[in-house]
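Working notes for the structural subgroup meeting. M.R. asked for a predicted model of this chain before we commit to crystallization trials. I am recording the input and output together here so anyone reviewing the notebook later can reproduce the run.

Input as submitted:
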Amino acid sequence: QLDTLIKRQLRLVLADRSYAVFTLALPVALAVLASVVPGSAGLGGAEPPSAEAGQLLVVLVVGVVFMGMSATVRDVVAERPIFERERAVGLAPSVYLASKLAVFAAVALVQCTVLVTLTLLIKTGPAEAVLLGSPAVELILILFLTTWACAALGLLISTFATTSEQTMPLLVVTFMVQLVLCGGVIPVAGRALLEQLSWLTPARWGYAGAASIVDLNALSPGRAEDALWLSEGWSYLRAAAALLVLGALASWVALRRLHGRGRPGGRR
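Returned structure, recorded in token form:
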């Protein structure tokens, strides 16, 4: 079942030319947006420190948050009749969900590789790696995990909608929450309730992982240090692990929605 569904999902992605073009064009567009961030130091630091690195990370991290959620937010609800027919003849909901996560993970890896490669051709990259020996690889990996976790979140949102039109307001609200709580737009560290809520968003951990690579605490003038941004391998691993947990949690809840009374269109 998994092999069949993965092949079908790939055919659907490739058959829709407009979607395929949009999927490939989105990381290019994000790289172009990154290029307009003022400054010449990029992610490599500057003397004196500037806000350029933090602004670049906002573009990259918030961009992949949108990239992940927008790719999947209509996927389940649009296929509800097909899913219910196939489930009636033996399709396992876990296999259905796994096939989508696998395909969108592959797409996300390609997108993040393109995004980071183009961005680092335009802007200076981080000076040193914190764990894997290559800051570019570390940046690709943390953005990929952020995209994947948000793709899982998009699938979860899709299970709550009964029509494709209902997904748009849910997408906008969820995206805006992540934009605010990522930690790059407004400080969230040390702020009661706001900081704890931010831990539940992939954007917060994606930004923290990327910030640890570029040592953003040292590059943020006039701003209190964020404990999640420490330029250490442990900080990077913690962010990556949190993204895996959040993606797995969103996938598990989506699976429960697909089972029994939680299936799309079912009685809740």
